Amino acid sequence: MNLKLFKPLFTLAVAVSLNLAAQNDAPKYSYTEAFKPFFYMNNATETRSASGQPGHNYWQNSADYVLNASLNDVKNEISGSAEITYTNNSFDNLSFLWLQLDQNLFKKDSRGNAVVPMGGSRNGAHGQDFDGGYTIKSVEILSANGKNLKINPKYTISDTRMQIDLPQDLKSKGGVVKLIINYSFVSPDYGSDRMGVEPTKNGKIFTIAQWFPRMCVYDDITGWNTLPYLGAGEFFLEYGNITANLTVPANQYVVASGELLNPKEVYSSDQNKKWDAARNSEKTVIIRSAAEANAAEKNSTATKTWKFKIENTRDFAWASSSAFILDAAKINLPSGKKSLAVSAYPVESDGNAAWGRSTEYTKSSIEHYSKRWYEYTYPNAVNVAGNPGGMEYPGIVFCGMSSKGADLWGVTDHEFGHNWFPMIVGSNERMFAWMDEGFNTFINSISEQDFNKGEYYTPKPLQSMAFAFNSDQMEPIMTAPDNLKERNLGFLAYYKPSAGLQMLRENILGEEKFDKAFREYIKRWAFKHPTPEDFFRTMENSSGEELNWFWRGWFLNKWKIDQAVKNVSYKSGDFTKGAVIKLENIGQLPMPVNLEIKFKDGTTQNVKLPVEIWKRNSEWTFEVPTTKEITSVQLDPKGSLPDANVSDNTFKVDGNSVAEKVDLKQFIGNFSSKEIPLKIVTTVENNQLMLQATGQPKIPLDYEGADKFGFSVAGIEFQFSKDRKGFTLNQGGKKFEFTRD
Ligand SMILES: [Zn+2]
Predict the structure, then answer these.
(1) d(CA 237, CA 214)
(2) End-to-end CA distance of the chain
(3) Dist. CA 523 → ligand 1 center (Å)
(4) Which residues are paired to 154 by β-bridges?
(5) 221, 59 in Cβ contact below 8 A?
(6) How far apart are CA 237 and CA 719, in angstroms?
(7) What sign results for the dihedral spanned by CA atoms 703, 709, 714, 715?
(8) CA of 16 to the centre of ligand 1 (A)
């Protein structure tokens, strides 16, 4: 799913950072707490190895579906049957089954509706006065444990779950039950930002998901996973093969998860030729043009049935519309296999500034992730323009039809990144959103650099997000999405876990070790159900590094990173004899040290120290064998760590040579703004202008010339007026005016 929190929060970074930044009254760093043993809560089992791989008796149940459904495009109603073949590979006999009835979220009296606050939510039916949910017409067991039965079992519906009592236990280790459920539901217009119906000039766009009764996961961790669908928590699903026969008005075009089995029946021979051309084309081929979409009939009483099949999948989604422009291009996979990038969008979204490049984006994303992490397994990858802002399904995603340019690239890349997490690596999204959204946001950050030589890439040093990562207002990452404030989901499920992997890769393990371990995790758990411990154990076992301190600090707790340079001196007071640097670890989350020494002659030297210096110390003094005079020592010069207080990260040895040229006293004062509720005080210390918001730590500003000061790690500038009566605070183009009180 897509959350566009980044930009608005980024522009307010200053306001928030100065309001929420590090509290200085935190307890002192305890190294025994950071590195204490017995991190893992569970020992190895026969299903999950201590090394993080599936155990020697790992099992997983499977669910295959044959889905027949028809769409009434006037009533927005789907009616159908789901024939489910469920295989119990567990060691347990099962006397009942649990299924997910996600559409019941849209019943007026659902638990999900009950938890929508008065201020609204992106979940639920989004203000539509709507009483949706399933009409279950029949439940029939066709066979169980190899015996034909044809009986109607007792079933109980409780919110978004259905329990079916079995006439006899489903046998362990391979028992198979076949059942068929007849149902219907009316689609909400805007279904929790994940599905819906959007009117366009040339007809409605139906984006259909969470639409058929699906098996709950039965596993070795909790048995039946029956948490209800409340909105924020996404899905946890079994793997299997799905066939879908979708009957829609004859003027509509259907795109879906998996391969279309009857192209000759649903496309003209000319369109079929264009599909064949696209399969061999690096460039996007138009299959159905804007002119065709404009000229097509708007209503049809006749119907067509579109037949699809997808293998080894955890879900199936589809979209149907008379309004679709369709285009496609070949996807090249590392093994030499091919897949197909497809886009379906209305004329409103057409054009190269918008969806005209969707197929190019799709192709690039799938090729990138396949090359770097694990090869894509589905026959096509379809991007559909609809009203969900961005939502992922196996082989198909729905993105906002008004998305354009960098936004469309970003959301397309994000939703297809989900094909790796959670479509390939099938973690429990309802419990651990960070394992899909966070891991995906992380792989997106690398894909973004790769696409078209960084066309849409903007570096975002983690230091610039420190205000959020260090906020005391947020829950720990290891909090289920339905258990945390909705406004915090963007940080806790997306950006903070992604930043965790980025630090693990760039600051702790290094790219080579990290990439090898992360690939190993994906390979081990492809089409399986890993837990957080399986991930942590795999990363430690593959890299050979103890990481319990990092898992504890970043994922389980809200420990802060805060390092400081306490002192720089010369041996015997003589710089030709070497320098002595004293560091302090203040935050409870220790990190390896990377610091930059600047010398008076303009040269620099980098020093790296392992995290082990913090295993029995909170201060560390070491010698740098140098013969040159030092001007400054700076921790983390590139801002790659979200240090909670950067004002103590730089130690200046002999003042700021640039600052000598200006009289810093002119910039001292108390300032306030009509635009944001912040009081700012500037002072001069050690020949440097310091800025402080009321009650918050000071940050050092560097003079950049022409009355301008910068705080470069957060990308903030302060442009003073000629008369010094105020300044303009500029962050990423967002400006706030401050005047002297
Ligand atoms: Zn997402």
Answers:
(1) 8
(2) 45
(3) 21
(4) none
(5) no
(6) 54
(7) negative
(8) 25
Rounded distance between C-alpha atoms, residue 408 and residue 389, angstroms: 10
Residue 476 one-letter amino acid? P
Cα 261 to ligand 1 centroid, rounded to whole Å: 29
| Residue list, CB under 5 A from ion ligand 1 | 1, 437
Question: How many domains does the chain contain in total?
Answer: 3
Sorted by sequence, the CB contacts under 8 Å of residue 222 that are 6+ apart come out as: none
- The CA–CA distances, whole Å, from 346 to 387, 538, 711 equal 12, 44, 45
Strand partners, 175: 88
* Nearest of 727, 711, 670, 673 to residue 694 by alpha carbon: 670
At 481 the pLDDT is 95
* Cα distance between residue 251 and residue 236, in whole Å: 35
Whole-number Å distance, alpha carbon 166 to ligand 1 midpoint, is 36
In a domain, 62, yes or no: yes
| Domain hosting residue 691, numbered range | 664-740
Q: Of the candidates 75, 387, 70, which has an alpha carbon nearest to the alpha carbon of residue 249?
A: 70
C-alpha–C-alpha distance, residues 693 and 19, integer Å: 8
| Residues 69, 165 within the same domain | yes
pTM assigned to the model: 0.87
Q: CB atoms < 10 A from the CB of 449, how many?
A: 14
Tell which of 632, 652, 672 closes a domain: 652
Rounded CA separation 716/709 (Å): 9
pLDDT at 144 over 70: yes
Q: What is the pLDDT of residue 24?
A: 46
Strand partners, 243: 66, 309
Compute, in angstroms, the gap from residue 418 CA to the centroid of ligand 1: 6
Q: Is residue 201 part of a domain?
A: yes
In angstroms, the CA 427 to CA 437 distance is 11
| Residue 717 and residue 570 share a domain | no
Residues 736, 729: Cα–Cα separation, whole Å: 5
Residue 391's pLDDT band, with cuts at 50, 70 and 90, is very high
Q: How far is the CA of 638 from the centre of ligand 1 (A)?
A: 28
Please report, rounded to a whole number, the percentage of residues in the chain having pLDDT higher than 70: 95
- The helix (run of H) or strand (run of E) holding residue 541 is helix 532-543
Sheet strand arrangement including 77-88: 147-151, 135-144, 175-186, 77-88, 62-72, 240-249, 303-313, 259-260
Q: What is the dihedral of CA 286, 292, 293, 298, to 10 degrees?
A: -150
Number of DSSP helices (H) and strands (E) in the chain, helices first: 17, 40
624 lies in some domain: yes
**Phi, psi angle pair for 110, to nearest 5°:** -70, 160
Residue 560 DSSP symbol? P
C-alpha to C-alpha distance for 459 and 219, rounded to whole angstroms: 41
Q: What is the pLDDT of residues 506-540, one digit of tens each?
A: 999 999 999 999 999 999 999 999 999 999 999 99
Q: Is the Cα dihedral 441, 233, 538, 504 positive or negative?
A: positive
The answer to whether the bond into 8 is cis (omega within 30° of 0) is: no
Residue 138 sits in the same domain as residue 219 = yes
Task: Report the distance separating Cα 433 and Cα 483, nearest Å.
Answer: 11
The CATH number assigned to the domain holding 697 equals 2.40.128.50
C-alpha 433 – ligand 1 centre gap (Å): 9
Residue 471 confidence class, pLDDT cut points 50, 70, 90: confident
Confidence of residue 21 (pLDDT cuts 50, 70, 90): very low
Q: What does the pLDDT read at residue 26?
A: 53
Q: Does 159 reside within a domain? A: yes
Q: What is the mean pLDDT of residues 305-328?
A: 98
C-alpha 417 – ligand 1 centre gap (Å): 8
Q: What is the pLDDT of residue 728?
A: 93
pLDDT of residue 298: 87
- 490-500 average pLDDT score: 96
